[in-house]
Structures are given as structure tokens and as C-alpha cells.
Amino acid sequence: MKYRIISGVLGNALLLVVPFNAGAQKKKIEKPNVLFIAIDDLKPEMGAYGNSLIHTPNMDRLASMGTIFLENHCQQAISAPSRVSLLTGKRPDYTKVWDLNTQMREIRPETVTIPQHFKENGYHAAGTGKIFDFRSVSREQDEQSWSEPYLRAGNKYYQNGQRPMLYWYQNPENRKIAQKYIEKANEKGLSGNDAIQYALQYFKPSVEAADVEDNAYNDGAMTLLALETLARLASDKKPFFFAVGYQLPHLPFVAPQKYWDLYNRDEMPLAPFQEKAKNSPEIAYHNSGELRSYSDIPPLVSFSDQPYGIGLPEYKQKELIHGYYASTSYVDAQIGKLLDYLEESGLIENTIIVLWGDHGWHLGDHDLWCKHSNFEQATRSPLIISAPGYQPGKTQSVSEFVDVFPTLCELAGIPVPDKLDGLSLVPVLENPKNEIKEFAVSQYPRGQNIMGYSIRNKRYRLTYWIGDGFRSTQPYNDSLLVAKELYDYKRDPLETENIVHRLRYRRVYRKMSRQITGFFESQLKQ
């Protein structure tokens, strides 16, 4: 057995070695393997999607091997609902996961997930990192989905065996400050996670750079575990379904200094339109509450003084965008390590690779940060699929995350479960000009009683904000309509004006109105 050194920085004398069994990895497997890569809060900002400033050579490399879905959208722009929807092939109104608290199987115990379905069809299913949002499944990350206990990086995978403080921080100064708050928590009788949550009330910086190795932070340590696992899975007789979930570029934006050094902060692109769209309803916006929870966000505008937005000064906007780019490049480097291993081992010849970010992310447009809306920057999400035997390409065919489940089944040659909400994207892989649907559907709740439903075709977005606790599995009538929006992305890509009442767009509105009500009617059968 040969070995290849992956990293020598796991401890003062500890080396992690990955077995490289060429015979095992070159054997013919009847069914293709699947590498399923999830990235938290990654919007379609990479070279392959047209951003010439950001450094993403490895995601671009994957894109050059597969199909890039340029018009892909999530079902709900927040982690748990989006991930549950993608992993079950069902929309949020069926799963009933609309928040960060609902347990998927408490509502739908009969649910079948993508890895579970592959496991039941002859695959060895393994996972590590953030695949499901941990708040929507059991502590074992939905044990029904996996062939083995869920994998977590132990201390040995971290640089010098030292995990980040408060889950995220490795900069020496930040570690000292965090330790003081942990000690205060201990004096109050708090320990473990309770002590960490106490400390985070007082110290929670939104960004961090540190002169450390990649595996000082969680995503780098997890990549070492993932490489080790890939080697183990490759030596098995079964085809594998291996899910690897990256936490960044979720807040806080923490990454080794070398990834920050890829950029000049003065060149960070501020959102060109940081206002509320003309004629748009207040309900479409939010207060960027997730970002406000960080201790270094200037408290310039109170919730009561401004019903939406946050009003960040330019220096902080540039710092956050810098952090988002640096974090994205850091994750890109980890993906490069996975691709390198697949290529060097020969596994890539028989492995389907799917890469997705669970939703988009506002970087100051409309004076919004994070996600939590039905605007373009929140719902549009990256999706790249590389499969053996299919030529690379780009497509503007509309797609959505519920399409991933049936697509992977068809590519792997296993049965497609009944009553999935999506359609297979294989026709698009065969020819990027093929189209399988006219529009994608996203939704977002406001409070307990209002849900916004948004349909997006190649040019337009129509959003209905509907009250009285309406869900698409219930009969719809116009008396429930609270507000509506229409945007034309050919003429107005920045969503500067809601044109739903303009006579010029009357025909567009009427057609899309029929489509959205038709969608509601179709959901009554669920």
C-alpha cells in the first residue's frame, strides 16, 4: 500500500496520510460514485459565473468539466428550509420546514432524502460538514440518511490540535478576548456550549484573518477528513455517495491571511443600488438582523428608526465584501484538494460531482445584507453538475433545487421516487439549450401570517405576498393578496422599480399571474 502525505501541520509531529491504492481506485464500478458538495451562503460569485475579480480557480475548474446552471434558484433563502427542500426534492410547503427550528422528521417522518435513497439502492452513503442544517434534523444529522455514523473532524485534523475559539476564531488576539469571556461564563457556573453562547453575546466579530494553515479553521480540517474518507470509500466494493458541506462563506468571514491577501480592499465592489425599489412594498425587506448580531457592526440605525435596511458605512461594507471574497477563495482552495485527489486517483472518471450553494446572499443591494428575501440576490444560487459522459457547457435554462434529486437518480441509473416536486435536468446536461420548465418558485415568510411566493422566468420575477396564513397547499383567492411585485431583469437588473402596475407590462403580469395561481392549484394535490 502506498501513502501520500496530505498535510504535515496537524500537530508537532503528526502527519495525516491518505492510502493511495491504485488498484482499488482504478477498478471498474458499474454505478458512478457521487461527490455532493454543499457550500453555505455561496451566491453565484465566481469566475465561471462572470465575476472577474474573485479568485475561484477550482470551482471554475469544476465548472469547465460540467454544466453551469446560470438561472438556478433556491426554494427558500434560508439554510434549513432550502437544504431540506433540496435533499428531499419537495417544496417547503410540503416539508413544512420554513424556519430554523422545525425538525424535518417530526413533521414528515416518512421523508426519503437523497443520500437515504442512494443508500437504499446499493450505495454507501457518508457525510461530513454542513449538509442538513443541524437545527432541522437529529444530532446525528438524520441517521436514516447515512450508511455509517456522521463524520466529524476530531482534534487531530486541526493545526496543532487546536480548535477555533467560540467555534470560529483563531487569531491570537481574538482567542485571548474569547477566553476572558469564557472564564466569566465559568464563574457564573456555565460550561461547554452554554459558556460559548454567553461569550458570543459580548464578543462576536464578523471578520477575522489569521496567519495560520488552512486546517486551523473548520473547513480546512474537515477537508483533511474528507480526503481520508474518499480514500477509504474508494477501496470499498460499493459505489459511494459522499456529501461534503462547507460552512463558509457564512458569517463570520474567517479565513487564513493568504486568502485575504488575494484582494485589495479598495477594489471591493460596493452594491450600485442601495435603496428600496420604487413602488415596492415594505414587506419585501428586512433589517439584516443576522448581521446585526455581530459585535463589530456599528449600531448606526435602530430597528424603530428605519423599518428596513441597516445603513452600514462604506468602510464596513468593503470589509465585509472583502471577507466574503476571502472566505469564498478559502473554500475554493479546499474544493481544489478534493478535485486533485479525484483526478490523481482516477476516481473522477466515474464520479458525478454536484456543487451547490444553499441560497444567494445580499451584499448591500437594497441596503440589505445576508439572505431572507425573495429578491434576486437572495434566491439565485449556484449549481454545477459534472457527470461522466456529458460535455461541459453553460445553460440559461431555468432550474431550481428540487430538480437535483431526480437528476442524480437518472444520472446514477437508480429509480426516481414518486411524487418529487422537481424535474430531471439530464436533458439540459445533454443539450444546454433544452428547457424543462418556464419558471422557478421561491418563497419567504414574514411573521406567522404572510408568505411571499416568487416565480422567476428568464426575464421577469413576479412576487405575491399573501396573508391570512396562506400556504400553497391551500385554496387561493385574490382577497388574500397583501402586496405584489414585478421586476424586469433585462431593463432593470438591479430591481430599482416595481413595475407591477405599469400598463406597459400588463400582458406580462397577466401571464405570470395565471402561472402563479396555476402553481397554487397544482400544489393542492400534494
Automatic annotation (TrEMBL):
Cofactor: Ca(2+)
GO molecular function terms noted in the UniProt entry: iduronate-2-sulfatase activity; metal ion binding
Database matches in Pfam families: Sulfatase
Domain Sulfatase N-terminal: 32-414
Alphabetized Gene3D superfamilies for the sequence: Alkaline Phosphatase, subunit A (3.40.720.10)
GO cellular component, one term: cytoplasm
Record flagged with keyword Hydrolase: yes
Modified how: The conversion to 3-oxoalanine (also known as C-formylglycine, FGly), of a serine or cysteine residue in prokaryotes and of a cysteine residue in eukaryotes, is critical for catalytic activity.
Cited PROSITE patterns: SULFATASE_1
Keywords: Calcium, Hydrolase, Metal-binding, Signal
Keyword Transferase: no
InterPro entries: Alkaline_phosphatase_core_sf, IDS, Sulfatase_CS, Sulfatase_N
Modified residues (3-oxoalanine (Ser)): S79
Family: Belongs to the sulfatase family.
Protein's name according to its UniProt entry: Arylsulfatase A
